[in-house]
C-alpha cells in the first residue's frame, strides 16, 4: 500500500508539471464523483484486493489451526443452536451469543422436513442473515432440509463446520409440551439428546419462565392476501388490532417450545397482518420480537447459581463464568453449590472444592455443599406422581412409564425431587441457574420419566440452563 501511495503522489506531481489547469479540473471532477458515490451509497459490491486478502488469510488460518493440538488453554465453546427459524427463538440465540460473543463459533441450525427448492432455500438464508445483523449477532445460519427432524439434526451435528471450526456444544430449548405432544415427537426430542452424547458433543438445554418460542407472535406472510396491503407497507392500525399486538400489550407469550424445528404455522382463524415483501415483514416483526429478546439488556445485581453436581469436564462451571465476564452481566456474582458424598466428609470435600476453584481461578462469593440422600417431602413426591400418572401403563405408546420402571428407578427419582427442594430453598430468586444435567441410560430410562425429572428440576424457576459436558470439555 505504501508503494502504491508513492506511485500515486508521483503521478499527480508529473500531471501538475505537464498542465496545472487540466490536472486541477480532473482532480475536482474525480473528487465530485467520489462524493456522489458516497452520498448515494449504491448497493454494489465493487470488490477489492482487501476482500481477497481476507479470504486468503482466513483460509490459511483455518488450515494452520488444524495443526494445533487440543489443550485446556485453547479450548473454546463452539455452539450449534437448534433454533429452527431464528426469528422464532431470539432469546435462545441471544443467550448463546452471551457465551460465544467475539470469541468463538456460533451456528444457528434449522432442520426442515420439507425439501426446499434452491430459490426458497436462498430466501430463508437471506432472511436469517438479515436477522442476525439486526440482532447484532456474530453467527452463521445453516439449513438442512428434506430429512426427518431426528436424521436432520444428526446430519447437522456431523457435517456443520470444518476442521477445528466445528461445534462442540449442542444447545436446544426445553420441550414444554412433552406431556401433550404425540409419542413420536417426544421420542425425536429424546433421541436428539442421546445423539449429541453419541457424537461426543456437550449438551445444554435452556428453559425460560415464559418459554423461548415466540412463533405465535410472528405473522406469516403466507396467511395474508397480498392485495390487503400495499407492497412493502404495514398498516400500524391493522397491526395494533392484530392478536400478536394484543398479546404483547398484555405481556403474555404463548409457549410451545417443543423443538419444532420446521417452524410453526398460525391457524387459519388468526387475523395475522404482515407485508408480502420479506424485507418489510422482517422490519414489522422485529419490534415484537425484541420484547422477547432476553439477555440483551443490562442485568441488575443478582446471582448466577451454579449447581456443579457431576464431573463432566468442567463445562458446568465454565459457561456461567464466561457469562459473568460479559459487561451486561458484570453485576451478577457466582454462587457455587456442590454435591457432598455424605455428611461426615462434607468439610473435607468442601476444602477440596475450594482448592479446585482457586486452581481454576473462578471468582465466586459463596460455596455451599449439599446432599441429596435425604428423602424428599411427601408433597414433592405427590407433585411428581401427578406428572407421570397420565402416562403410567399407557400401552398405546412405547414411551409410557411402567410401574416396574417407576419402582426400579425410585431412588434416582427421589434424588431429583430432593434436588428440586434444594433449588427452591437456595436459588428461587437467582438471575440464572446452571445445573449439571442427569444423563438417562438408553433403554433403561424412558423418555417420559426423564422429562418428568427435568420438569421437576426446572418448573417455576428463573432462567435455567441444564449442562452436561462430554467429559473432555
UniProtKB/TrEMBL annotation:
<dbReference type="Pfam" id="PF03522">
    <property type="entry name" value="SLC12"/>
</dbReference>
<keyword id="KW-0472">Membrane</keyword>
<dbReference type="GO" id="GO:0055075">
    <property type="term" value="P:potassium ion homeostasis"/>
</dbReference>
<dbReference type="GO" id="GO:1990573">
    <property type="term" value="P:potassium ion import across plasma membrane"/>
</dbReference>
<feature type="domain" description="Amino acid permease/ SLC12A">
    <location>
        <begin position="2"/>
        <end position="80"/>
    </location>
</feature>
<dbReference type="InterPro" id="IPR004841">
    <property type="entry name" value="AA-permease/SLC12A_dom"/>
</dbReference>
<keyword id="KW-1133">Transmembrane helix</keyword>
<feature type="domain" description="SLC12A transporter C-terminal">
    <location>
        <begin position="89"/>
        <end position="473"/>
    </location>
</feature>
<dbReference type="InterPro" id="IPR018491">
    <property type="entry name" value="SLC12_C"/>
</dbReference>
<dbReference type="GO" id="GO:0006884">
    <property type="term" value="P:cell volume homeostasis"/>
</dbReference>
<dbReference type="GO" id="GO:0008511">
    <property type="term" value="F:sodium:potassium:chloride symporter activity"/>
</dbReference>
<dbReference type="GO" id="GO:0016020">
    <property type="term" value="C:membrane"/>
</dbReference>
<dbReference type="InterPro" id="IPR004842">
    <property type="entry name" value="SLC12A_fam"/>
</dbReference>
<dbReference type="GO" id="GO:0055064">
    <property type="term" value="P:chloride ion homeostasis"/>
</dbReference>
<protein>
    <submittedName>
        <fullName>Bumetanide-sensitive sodium-(Potassium)-chloride cotransporter</fullName>
    </submittedName>
</protein>
<keyword id="KW-0812">Transmembrane</keyword>
<dbReference type="GO" id="GO:0055078">
    <property type="term" value="P:sodium ion homeostasis"/>
</dbReference>
<feature type="transmembrane region" description="Helical">
    <location>
        <begin position="6"/>
        <end position="39"/>
    </location>
</feature>
<dbReference type="Pfam" id="PF00324">
    <property type="entry name" value="AA_permease"/>
</dbReference>
